[in-house]
Each structure stands twice: as C-alpha cells, then as structure tokens.
Amino acid sequence: MGRFKPLSTAPVPERAILVGVDLGKSEWGCEESLAELARLAETDGAEVVMTLTQRLDAPVPRTFIGRGKVEELCGYVRSLSADVVIFDDELTPSQQANLEKIVGEPVKIIDRTALILDIFGVHATTHEGRLQVQLAQLQYVLPRLRGMWSHLVGEQTRGGIGSRFGQGESQLEVDRRLVRARISTLRRELERLERRRGVQSKARWDSGVYRVALVGYTNAGKSTLLNRLTGADVYVRDELFATLDPTTRALELDEGRKVTITDTVGFIQKLPTMLVESFKSTLAEVRAADLILLVVDASDPHRELEINAVRSVLAEIGASEIRCVTVLNKADLLDELQLRDAAAAHPDAQVISAREGTGVRGLLYRVAREAAAGSVTMSVLVPYEKGLLMRMVHERCQVMRETYVQEGLLATVKADARMARTLAPYEASGPAAQQQGADGEKDGLVQDVDDKGVPADE
Ligand SMILES: Nc1nc2c(ncn2[C@@H]2O[C@H](COP(=O)(O)OP(=O)(O)OP(=O)(O)O)[C@@H](O)[C@H]2O)c(=O)[nH]1
Ligand SMILES: [Mg+2]
Fold this sequence. Notes:
Bound molecules: guanosine-5'-triphosphate, magnesium ion
CATH architecture of the largest domain: 3-Layer(aba) Sandwich
CATH class of the largest domain: Alpha Beta
Shape: elongated
Strand order of the largest sheet: 6-7-5-8-9-10
Number of strands: 13
Oligomer: single chain
C-alpha cells in the first residue's frame, strides 16, 4: 500500500540568509534595506533564517564581503541548513561565482536584482509583461552564464548542460550566443508590440483624453486606489510587486469630463537598471501621463525615503517634468498627531484612505482642478455630422452652455490645451455665438450639462 503514497506537493519554503553591507553611503540604513529585502524574499516564498551585516568602506572585489565574513557565512549556511544566500546589493558575476565556489553547492548565491526578477517572473500576467521580464532576466543572466541558467533560453540548450562548473568553453560560447539571439528576438518582439500599441492608441477615440497615472513605491496602495475610483478589479495584495502590468480605466469626473487613470508597476529603491530598461513600454504609460498621482503609504516609517526613491526613478525615465500631486494614502493607520505631521511635511498633498474611501472625493476634485488648469474658454460650432467631435466636446471639456442650432452644436466650453487645438477649426466667432452669449438663457435652449454627455447618435 505504502508504496504508492503520493509525495507532498506543497512547496517547502527555501531557507534564506540575507547579507547586507553598510557602505555608509546610502540614505537607507543597512537595517532598513535588509528589512525590505526580507519582505521581498518572503514575497518570493522564502523563509528568512538569518541576516548578516558588515560595515565596509568599499566592497571587497573578490567576494563583496570580507574573508572572515565569508567564513562566518559558510558556518551559518551549514548550521542553519540554508538553501539560498541573498545579497542586498548587486554582485558582479565574478563575485557571485567566487562566493558560490566557496560556500559550495547546492547553496544558491543571488542578489536583490535576481530576487526582484524572480518575483516579476511570477507576477507578470500579460504577454508583453512576460516578454519584458524575460528580457531583463536574460540580460542579467548573460554575463553570469556558467551553464546553470541555460534552461531559461529554451529547450534547445538543455541537452548539453551537465554540471554547473567545468564545462567546455565551446559549450559556454554556444550558450552565450543563444542567449544573445533570444535577447534580440525579445527586443524585436517588444518593439513590434509597442508599435502596434501606438497605432491602436492613435486609433482609439480617447487618445488625447487627459491621462492620470498612479505612481508609487510598491505596496503604497495604487491598485486599491484604482479599484476604489473606478470599480476596477486589479489584484491587491499585501506583498511587494503585486501588480506588474498596467491597467487603464476611464473615470468620469463630476463636471462631466472623462479622464483615464492607469495603475502600473511599483517602484523600489535600488530598482535594477535593466528592469527600468526592459519595462520601457510599461513605463511609457507613466511618461505619457498629463498628471502623476504619487501614491505614498503615509504610515510607512520610511515614507520620505520612499518618496525620494520614486522621484529618482521618475527622473530616470524622463517623467520628472510631468505635473505631480502627492497622495498620502493609508490615513486610517495614522493617529491625529501623525496625520498632522504628514500633512505639514506635504502641505500640497491630498490625504486619503483608499481602503476606507476617505478623502477620495477631495482627490477627485483636485484631479478635476488639475485637468482644468491651463484650459481656455472658447465657443465652438460643431456640425451635426461630426458625431465623434461632439462626443469629445461632451466628454473632454467642461461644457458651460450649449445650444443646438441649425448648423450644429453651438457650445461654450472650457478646453485643455490639447482639446483647444482639436477644436480650433470649429471656433465660432460669428453672430450665432455672440447671440448665444447674449440671449441663450432667455430662449430656453441652453441645456444643463448632463452627467453622461454622450449624444444619442453614438
Ligand atoms: N490600512 C490601509 N491599507 C491599505 C490602504 N490602501 C491599500 N492598503 C493595503 O496595502 C496593501 C497594498 O495595496 P496595493 O493596492 O496592492 O498596493 P500597490 O501600490 O498596488 O502595490 P504593488 O502592486 O505591489 O506595487 C494591501 O494589503 C492593501 O489592502 C489604505 O488606505 N489603508
Ligand atoms: Mg498594485
């Protein structure tokens, strides 16, 4: 009977030792950064069994940490039966190889970057997201290729791989070539997808609509806010990098204007450069925004550091010029004094709780104000056959008064710069427009701006 007892399929968490080096340079203390690394490790399904730190002026070239520390590490790996050692900073390929040799198989030596790449691999759900992660993983792997990563490249390389070390130079060269080839294929495929998306968004009726992007440190509550604002159903979890793929939803403001709002990948300190590079198309959503809502977990003790980390990624992706409003989220976790402090540190911020819904109306009002800023008031006469344009007037402008006259829709609107350009050819300066201003209200033709604003012909 016992012979066919099924094996347990529940994954056993890998036992991880975390290693941090305090170089005395970073804004983030070594302890804080390691605490975050521990959360990343747990998100990736590991169990942290110990943390080791060392104070150094500069990393040791051969092994990153000093010789004595390496010995100490080896001791802990044995006594705690660790499966993996995770360094908080990026190791060079040779440091990684040297450490692996000293600590010995089958213990894996990885760094923060590899860990983040692993989490991304699990959380990417769209085709494009997966390709982006794969590209970043292969770029990470290429200089570290010693045989053990080749399974990532595809079936064709599996046969030749024996052990991790001591394989022939030629096989390694073959592997490298395959990885490089795969990298260029992925790049081409991503470019193709990006082009196609560009074409699609040009064709979409809402291109040119005011765009809001939710940006923030991972776990700040971006997806919760999107869900709250639009009734979307984006994955929310108390884990890091819960969301990778961008989700965009339309949102109608009280004054009738439609905006789109996009939730996307969270940022983190020491965000691997190759990830920023590979996620170009995802991050393009941020760059294309008219307004960034920088969502902050106001209850996090590292709030200010997180804001700085987000700002520096924004600068890195060329988005620092975009209008940005800070949103202090999770206000429900703060007491009155803390709330006052947070608001004093960010006097221009909107304070909300995405989970409870408090402050969300104020936030929407703020978005409406931002969207209206820089708008111009103009009178337009849109012919009846321009159905799409009429719809745009209702959904993207604030309509102050409107009259249906013989030639079409005569309206006085507040339009943002983009809409003003679109509407310029239809600007009404003739007597009809002036008439509207003079007696529109009297003749009863002025209609209230209705909520939907969608003409019946669409
Ligand atoms: N108490 C409280 N918790 C919140 C609030 N907003 C979000 N959370 C919680 O914070 C955690 C992270 O929320 P998400 O919305 O997934 O955060 P995110 O910014 O999308 O995170 P990533 O996708 O991982 O970058 C979840 O457990 C949420 O329930 C809030 O206003 N108050
Ligand atoms: Mg999210």
